[in-house]
Amino acid sequence: MHSHRSPLLLVLLALAGSLALAAPPPPEPAGRPRVLRLDVKQAITSGTAEYIEAGIARARTDGYDLLLLVLDTPGGHLDATRDIVQAMLAPEVPIAVWVGPAGARAGSAGVFLTMAAQVAAMHPASNIGAAHPVLAGGKDVAEQAGKDMAKKVENDTAAFARSIAAARGRSADWAEKAVRDSVSVTAAEALKEKVVDVVAPDVAAVLAFADGRKVAVQAATRTLRTRDATVEPLDMTVRQRTLGFLADPNVVALLFLLGTLGIALEFYHPGSIIPGAAGAIALLLAFLAMRVIPVNTGAVLLLLAGMGLLIAEAYVTTHGIAGIAGAGCMLVGTLLFIDKSAPEYRFDPAAYHLSPAVVWPTPLALAALLGFVAWKIARSRREKLVSGTAGLVGETGEALTDLGPGGGEAFLHGEYWRARAPGPVAAGSRVRVVAVQGLILSVEPDAERAALPHPGS
């Protein structure tokens, strides 16, 4: 009986071995999760949109598990905000936003970015809100652009905020209040209002919270793997940094003021080239920045008028009236430089402003400098010309030969000149120039100084 069972046993063993070979190998343990970190600590501009869109593309191409956006912004341009939100609502990689570190804020446009993330987190000492634009004095947009336009812009932006909140399961009512009533809340209040998902003190806490959450990525559900992830930063390009740098209203104001100074100095001293070229470059950068941040056109005209009055002070005798008026125009223009009522911008008015260190000292210092230059130029015009042949009149020298109406030679300013005198002048006598005719000096004896020996004697 044993001999009959052996072949059957061998067949079964062979079949089991073949099945074992055909079975797929057990799955290998997954590697450590990777997170791509982007830091936005400036106004939302076209440069910021390029930066975030490039980060999303990089995270998708290199297979990152999560894109983390660390946010601290006063707001920004609405068109750039819409571009970013569109990319965040249809991502090919999960996106998380952390408003941090301590003291950070997601003001105005930052509200839309935070709500558009699949995971929204805030530092305990941060705030979010104020998505409704107001004038510097707290007035409504209706007073600047009219009630109809203000209502249209407000309704459009409120609908934009509600659509984002609905897409991410957040509080649409609070999102609308942030636009219409400019409400701003702390991190704890934002969590209570279901604006964010978690209050986290650092990036590690955000990643620990996100780990295991299920999020929608391109109509598919993905489980996040972020605990103990490797966080890799992505730096901005030079172009993106430049646009962000120009978004600082203090930088724009300084560029405009320095540009006007350079142009004014070129008018004061034509042909110096360097001040005019530097001023032109500064003005070009300022005009480029005006497409990044909201600038009051009236304020720009005041600054230009102030520059014109300061230049006029150098050419027209106004006893300082034009200079004082020019300084006043520059000061008022700087105070009103930022237009917070522009409907295409979303800035937190409490955080987005010109520094007093720029508003007050800079225009006054520039006006004082230009006034000093104007005074020096006006003074020089009243003085005797001391360059060229006309500058020789009144200068003293020495008669090298006997001089008279027929002429001779004189030594003056280290040079030998042909000279003549109305009467006889002995060689070695001191002479004074009374006129210059071509290259011939008309001289007369210098009675105030005694005769000196010839330099070569």
The third-level CATH topology of the largest domain is: 2-enoyl-CoA Hydratase, Chain A, domain 1
Strand order of the largest sheet: 9-6-4-2-1-12
- The whole-angstrom Rg is 39 Å
**Percent of sequence in beta strands:** 15-25%
Terminal Cα span: 149 Å
Structure, explained:
By secondary structure, the protein is an alpha/beta fold. It folds into three domains: 34-240, 2-enoyl-CoA Hydratase, Chain A, domain 1; 248-382, no CATH class; 389-445, OB fold (Dihydrolipoamide Acetyltransferase, E2P), CATH 2.40.50.140. 46% of the residues lie in helices and 18% in strands. It contains 16 helices and 18 strands. It has helices at 2-22, 46-61, 78-89, 109-116, 142-145, 147-168, 172-180, 187-192, 203-210, 238-246, 249-268, 274-289, 297-315, 321-335, 356-359, 361-382; strands spanning 34-40, 66-71, 75-77, 95-99, 105-107, 119-122, 127-129, 184-186, 198-199, 214-217, 220-223, 230-233, 345-347, 396-399, 408-412, 415-420, 430-437, 440-445. It has a six-stranded parallel β-sheet, sandwiched between helices. Strands 14-15-16-18-17 form a five-stranded mixed beta barrel. A hairpin with a 2-residue loop joins strand 10 (214-217) and strand 11. Helix 13 packs antiparallel against helix 14 (321-335). The longest helix is centred in the middle third of the chain and has 22 residues, at 147-168.
